[in-house]
Design goal:
Blueprint (H helix, E strand, L loop, with lengths): L13 E3 L2 E3 L6 E6 L4 E7 L3 H16 L8 H17 L1 H12 L3 H22 L7 E2 L5 E9 L2 E5 L5 H14 L3 E5 L6 H12 L7 E3 L4 H10 L5 E5 L2 H11 L5 E5 L5 E4 L5 H13 L11 E5 L3 H13 L19 H16 L3 E4 L14 E4 L6 H4 L6 E7 L2 H9 L3 E2 L1 E5 L3 H10 L4 E4 L14 E2 L2 E2 L6 H6 E9 L3
Parallel strand pairs: 7-8, 7-10, 8-9, 10-11, 12-13, 12-18, 13-16, 15-16, 18-19
Antiparallel strand pairs: 1-2, 3-4, 5-6, 6-22, 11-21, 14-15, 17-20
The structure holds 1,4-dihydronicotinamide adenine dinucleotide and magnesium ion.
Length: about 475
Amino acid sequence: MVSKEDIQIKPGKLFINGKWVDSVSGKTFDVLNPATEEVLTSVAEGDKADIDLAVSAARKAFEKGPWKKMDARERGKILLKIMELIEKNKDELALLETMDNGKPISETTNADLPLVIDCLLYYAGWADKIHGETIPVRGEYFNYTTREPVGVVGQIVPWNFPLLMAAWKIAPALACGNTVVFKPAEQTPLTVLRLGEICQEAGLPDGVLNIVPGYGPTAGAALAEHMDVDKIAFTGENATGQIIMRAASKNLKRISLELGGKSPNIVFADSDIDSAVAGAMTGIFFNQGEVCCAGSRLFIEKSIHDEFVEKLSDKTAGMRVGDPVDADTQMGAQVSKEQFDKILGYIDAGKQEGAKLVTGGERCGERGYFIKPTIFDAVDNNMKIAREEIFGPVVSTISFDDIDEMVRQSNLSIFGLAAAVWTKDIKKAHRLARDLKAGTIWINTYNAFDAASPFGGFKQSGFGRELGVHALELYTQVKSVWINLGS
Ligand code: NAI
Ligand code: MG
């Protein structure tokens, strides 16, 4: 195991055209450990001038560099090498992520890093399997299609899964032959900067991946507005998604958006109650609730409501919240003071709206952004805490006895990212899988992920699908070629 003392966190720079550089303005910003509120290091702060340099490096690498023209299998090999180096450094990366984000080391070690490694492995395998088709058109023609990279891709991610979101975005983009300008969240730039070093060591050509840490309204906006960027992939809050869409309209760049959620987690009386209790906890407390697909609306069938809430609340009250670096910790710190305050504000709103606070409902300890896992019972689906994304460890339970009415309420949300159903009745499970309006449906499980299975939203949870074969659609465009075989 790597311990806190073993890792040296050096000041972060921008990674542009294969070089580590200061920002044009010379400005830097501090990166905090949310569990201690201490400064971990400072990082160069990118802005429009740096984005311009990064985009021009990515453009040059795309048009003139070896990446796009390289044998596809060689591209795959470089991705595999990146994967191997991540694997070799996985303990260090897990610890760095934990210190930067506040999430428990058990989660970075057992969820984030394995999923990152899997994502690289999966898309390395795709690099030489992306091809077009031949089409039987009318007349004396031979018609075929090719799948080409989109070009220079801008990618903007949030702070909840910093390295994993980087893998989801960078791996398919590179496998398809694009070049990338990547902007991490200002709260959590450290692991992706380390990934930049790893990519360099793996032999990724200069300019193929550029990393520009900085703030949203400056560096992020400059990337989204840039006239020489061909596509933006964004994950984050809905209001930002709207800004990105407007900015992207300037040069009609392609966009894919993975936005918020208010996902229903539905428990029937005929489910295995203990599994469902565990699933309800994973659904909302994993990653301190800072998960876009968190099961934040817990629908419970009336006949088991009391028993279920009692079990859930006993287990929740016993959760170990604290030092994220401790291997036994189950829930760490919220990412920032801003998120901490926002969540406590929602908890106040829940109390004021008359929801019944069952457990939690306050900060935990005096230092660090820790919040006790919180359950509100007797919530009405129209309350603010049931409508808006809290992005914290706060679940709202809503009891139901009529299935159709429950499905109607489940779907009564601007979001549609995920939904889960707990039942032993196979017909009910499939019926709900059909009727729930969400991009992912989990039956008798929660937060199951695989690089091969698509992820993305219905409704205002966004559009475009990441992961799986579907991500190749985001990062390629189709060309149709006609050859006259007649006279
Ligand atoms: P955000 O959407 O503002 O930030 C995400 C990324 O977008 C960051 O890299 C940020 O720098 C960038 N960004 C911000 N403004 C931008 C702009 N004008 N142009 C281009 N890029 C911009 O999310 P934030 O403010 O960190 O979190 C606020 C709330 O959003 C959370 O409380 C949560 O409810 C929600 N959220 C949802 C996420 C999801 O995965 N669905 C992820 C993060 C936040
Ligand atoms: Mg914001």
